[in-house]
């Protein structure tokens, strides 16, 4: 009789150690998935792993099925492995999965014949495992033998890695190349890289959320320390308050809850003075609620600047979330994220600010890096959209609606057909938002 189990942990290896400690080495894992673990009352959980499996009964000695199963696995493995250099090895252009497929079919018939002779539960389980393995390898066999080590796929992977795309993102791109391009077409590297650039563009999501109709409309900017939130708030105030970049001018007010940094308060007040936009400083939930209420009849847009918080400081983040609740349920929260942030840190930031229900990401400091793969792959994997980008310190010049082209022209090492990508990805976040 089989014993089923499930274990959770921070990594797959941790889950495996827990399972082996409880059930020994004779376990079989049949499912792995990403789950949220830890946290408090649903807040600030982190991404973890859950594995599911069962404890196998010891294999019967001299079992014909076991022998065939091992033979099946070895046959599949040999067929899927790249050819070894040396005498008798085949190059990629001439490799063929035909002989491997024939061997797999012969073994399949033997196992099926054996399965028909009895109804032993152990036999059925092992047979099911072998069939599953065979189907997975057969589905990949053609591309594995013929394309796995093709120089074009290797070079594309190196270019993506050089742009700091995540390992999982690179793997998906390489798998798509194998799936959609015959071996002969892989010789045309320029065509492949042009298609990869287009796929990268398709993976970038622009903000398309609807703007709040409640008056005043309240936009809140959150994010970690040092990403340029205060400067970004001033730039947004200029866009909406002065009517820059073809945006209709509206009545704007700025509020800051960052009273801990004197320089930050002075900075936003100076920006407000230059643009003729009033600035209010608040410290408590009640102050924030009353200030927004005062603006209800005379202001179209309220921009709220927040305190920079470490994504690891769960208590402070929870306190800030409670304070911002004074903005009302219709507030629009946007997350400021620096393009210079490490890929691993981006994932943590996206996860830890999730309780704020941010609608989009504003990518700052795009001018300070030549590598955008860390941002693109992390946002794609989390399903997050981009509304604005900032590319300098000047107010109000260095901000614009996000567009796919903004990112693609920053790809390093790729040949960029700019007229083509501008035509292919002509829309900005504003066009998407307005349905153009």
What does it look like?
This protein has 436 residues and is of the alpha/beta class. Among the domains are: 1-56; 217-433, 3-Layer(aba) Sandwich (Rossmann fold). It is built from 16 helices and eleven strands. The protein has helices spanning 12-23, 64-80, 98-115, 121-147, 151-162, 167-180, 189-202, 229-241, 262-275, 285-294, 314-324, 343-352, 373-382, 404-408, 418-424, 429-433; strands at residues 3-9, 27-37, 46-55, 217-222, 252-256, 279-281, 301-305, 332-338, 360-364, 386-390, 399-401. It has an eight-stranded mixed sheet, sandwiched between helices. A three-stranded antiparallel sheet has the order 1-3-2. Strand 9 (360-364), helix 13 and strand 10 form a beta-alpha-beta unit. Helix 5 packs antiparallel against helix 6. The N and C termini lie far apart (61 Å). The model is unreliable at 59-66, 79-101 and 141-148 (pLDDT under 50).
